[in-house]
Amino acid sequence: MIETKKVCRAFPVSGEEPFMALKDVSVKIPEKSLTILRGKSGSGKTTLLNIIGALDAPSSGEVFFGGRNITGLSDKERERLRRQKIGFVFQSVSLIPMMTVYENVEFALRLSNYKGDRKKRVEECLHLVGLGKRAQHMPQELSGGEQQRVAIARAIAHAPQVLFADEPTAELDTATSLAVIKLFKDLVEKQGVTIVMTTHDMSLMDAGDMVYTLTDGSVDAVEEEEEKE
To answer: What does R_g of the chain's alpha carbons equal in angstroms?
Structure first.
């Protein structure tokens, strides 16, 4: 589904050599799977997620999305790719506080110019995340785990091919984190979504079909499901 070839990302530092956040990173993200990018803070996992999610471009190397080389896309072309084929979930759920749960998800459909039945799609997505009965609640009336599930419903509303999640469980307790991971696994198995998430939580490693470990901007370990078993 996604592949990077020798991707580097350098950030300028005033009066010094550029900081190399990524160094010759080559990864392959299988279709319809849950792939985990693990590593400590500063390891480069979020920088890599931003690049394969078309939020940023590499300083060098190539990125392929669905077989298409997206390395040289313009900002406008990357935005179109994100709107049509990509969904995002972040550590901060960033729900709009003056909108209901239903309205938050429906707003995402408006932004993506969704052509189908919006009401039906919102109800379907809220049912998928187990919040069908909370549609008319405000975000502040929900628990942290419920808010994250609304964020997931919002991210998958336009039926993206890939869902990127940056530390989606960092602010959640263990039980709620496991519930979110179970939801991700269900989305992969039942909806055919490809999911890539970052985490530093070692207790979640077994959930991934593939796990890449990053250290100081480089991939130093790769684990596939068969190897873990």
So the answer is: 18
